[in-house]
Design brief:
- With 195 residues, the chain is an alpha+beta fold.
- It is 45% helix and 29% strand.
- The longest helix has 37 residues.
- A four-stranded mixed sheet has the order 1-2-6-5. Strands 3-4 form a two-stranded antiparallel sheet.
- It has one domain.
Length: 195
């Protein structure tokens, strides 16, 4: 699996806050990375925490200060040949949407509070990059599985087998997100605590 630092570098370079980036690598994986923010404000750490608690995004697992969601899709081409049918030129799309808090623009806060906030947001981003790395690993493995599919008896069977293999990879990687959150205590062990 690519390191979280690699994903951090990738998303930092390709998708500054509030932007989007796309690219397709040699394995055929195209990435659509979106970094979205929501504004929080307050004149103290306590006020910022209260606003974070009020505005933070929710998922099926609860509400968190930041959220990263990933989705892997694929398209298959098939080629009939003597004795069966095989997958050719699979295309894999990875969509990552990361939602992070930011201090409301033009809002002055005390310097020490600003430093504490920046440390927190860096640690939070590092944690969310770990979730992005799980999606990245899933997309690469899906691409590899699709490329390694054996020739099937017919094209319908080839598509079914490829879809089943890709879905199994995604299901396996979906289990890694909650495990990562348990191991890191939702980023707290990485320094993502505020205040």
């Amino acid at each position: 699996m690519p390191s979280a630092a690699r994903i951090l570098a990738l998303t930092s370079l390709l998708a500054p806050l509030g932007t989007q980036a796309e690219e397709r690598d040699a394995s055929g994986v195209r990435r659509d990375v979106r970094i979205e923010t929501y504004d929080v404000s307050g004149d103290s750490a306590r006020q910022l925490r209260a606003d974070l608690n009020h505005r933070r995004p929710s998922t099926g697992a609860g509400r968190f200060d930041a959220v990263t969601q990933w989705q892997v899709d694929w398209q298959l081409s098939v080629q009939a040949e003597r004795g069966g049918c095989r997958i050719t030129d699979p295309l894999v799309d990875l969509k990552i949407v990361m939602k992070l808090p930011r201090l409301a623009p033009a809002r002055a806060v005390p310097a020490e509070l600003e430093r504490h906030w920046q440390r927190y947001v860096r640690a939070l981003r590092e944690h969310e990059d770990g979730h992005a790395a799980i999606g990245e690993a899933a997309a690469r493995e899906v691409a590899g599985q699709l490329l390694r599919q054996p020739t099937a008896a017919n094209c319908q069977a080839a598509r079914r087998a490829a879809d089943k293999a890709a879905q199994a990879v995604i299901a396996e990687h979906r289990l890694k997100d909650p495990d990562y959150d348990r191991r890191t205590e939702h980023g707290a062990r990485q320094g993502a605590r505020f205040p």
